[in-house]
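User: Can you help me understand a structure? I only have the sequence.
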Amino acid sequence: MCGIFAYIGQQNAYDVLIKGLKRLEYRGYDSAGIALLNKGLNLYKTKGKVTDLEDLMKDKNKEGNVGIAHTRWATHGEPNDANAHPHYSLSKKLAIIHNGIIENYASLREELVKRGFVFRSDTDTEVLIHLIEDIQISEKVDLVEAVQIALNEVIGAYAIVILNKDNPNELIAAKKGSPLVVGLGKDEYFFASDATPIVEYTQNVVYLEEEEIAIVNIKEGLKIKTTKNKDKTPYVQKLEMSLQALEKGGYEHFMLKEIYEQPRSIRDSMRGRLNIEGGIVSLGGIIDYEQKFLSANRIIIIACGTSWHAALVGEYLFEDLARIPVEVEYASEFIYRNPVIYENDVVIAISQSGETADTLAAIELAKSKGATIIGICNVVGSSIARAVHAGSYTHAGPEIGVASTKAFTAQVTILTLMALMIAQKKGTISKSRFYQIINELNVIPAKVEKTLKASEKVKAIAEIFQDSRNFLYLGRGYNFPVALEGALKLKEISYIHAEGYPAAEMKHGPIALIDEQMPIVVVATKKGTYEKIISNIQEIKARKGIIIAIITEGDKRVKDIADYIIEIPDTDEVLTPLVATIPLQLLSYYVAVMRGCNVDQPRNLAKSVTVE
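Assistant: Let's start by predicting it. Here is the structure, written out as tokens:
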């Protein structure tokens, strides 16, 4: 993985492709490359950023109307020039870009070496393009058929685009387990990992389905076949995305912009689903599966990373409000531990991108056991959105920063609405309590907006602790997942070691770390286990730990014992995560900026993790 972009049409391909790669930078990568058809098939690639590729290309021939380009996040082989994409076939008549992993590449490579093939890289991708060319020559078939045969021999995931020196009017692409979208313009076509680099050229797209091959010929248009050679009719969809949403809009970084977009993204995630006057919560995407929720003996929530933290909040919500037992699973572990799944289980899969490979694999496993699968994701037309039985989009808008911010609060918002809807239908929540929560939920965007006004105070605290080597984050109840998410944000973008813990677990090990150098962020809102969290703070102070406390506005008790405080508006306990997470996002952001880190593209990370 990470970012695929290809173009064929009337424009200068280089200009289109470089701009597209920049749109895909948010996915995270360590090298970049491009192949162009101009007086031959010419390939250029380099370790580093797209700007490094531009420097490499300054004195190169950039003419031509067809090309492929890629930003790579290393899987097979270290990040270097040789392992960067695209890759040539042995004859250099073909070039390929690839996302995903070919799992049986080692045995294929061994066989190809015996047949005289020479490899220029350590990648599984080069194995695939050599295999395709070998089949094309030995079987005396055209390139499309060679691709079909090869893809039936490989095991694993792929999204590929192939450029053919002998056919400059054509691009061939295929997809399995990794996203690929085709943009349909006027006498021009685009291939991309997602719609972000396409939207400024066309609103018409086709999302490739599993094991489909797309053949684009500038004279004949788009054809779709399967790897088994079955013809398919392309299903053209309209993009629901604006170019403006992909720009920074005056903010220094996308992450900061997205933090400040949360009042809107939370509101948009509730729009049309929360009727205060009528006392109704309704999610149209799952209404046909209401009964499955009502009769479920158990809910299993599967996710990774930030989405897993949102899932933990969901566990509290469903058990507290709807009285349904919940298990929260890392998707990556779920698929390998032979889980017990029943037909009356409801499985909720959460993913910002809708392309997370581990979560997709977990969905397929749960489906094979007969469970009902509900999706929560942010990207319309994504693989998870198509794989589930039903679901709800978050409507957070494009999230470009690799470290998720508005995705987390949007996911928690959807989970809150789901839990309330099921609780109301089941009768596990009183009418007064239901109205209390929905009225409070309605004003959460305003409270988030108010919390954002504390940014200068958060910035001042960040300045004090920017050189710290370790942080500890503590919370209890609904604030425990908030602590985990706060720690993840800090380590993701500032590279400071940070851990999140339930506050009561501190004395079962982490308390050994506490000294006068250790900053400890405590989410200590005046709700639920408030008295207990005060006791935990006292334990920290007795060992000279430094307390940074997130407190309810006007709270005197914690303020008097904490070293630094950040106040947030009072809100209902079940909604606290939507507000309490905001200052933690800001703290991470400012610390990272002060340390000179690449906030939007932190090292080693990818936005859409499409490999297991």
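Now, to help you interpret it: Residues 87 and 126 are 6 Å apart (CA to CA). The chain has a mean pLDDT of 89. Let me know which part you'd like to focus on.
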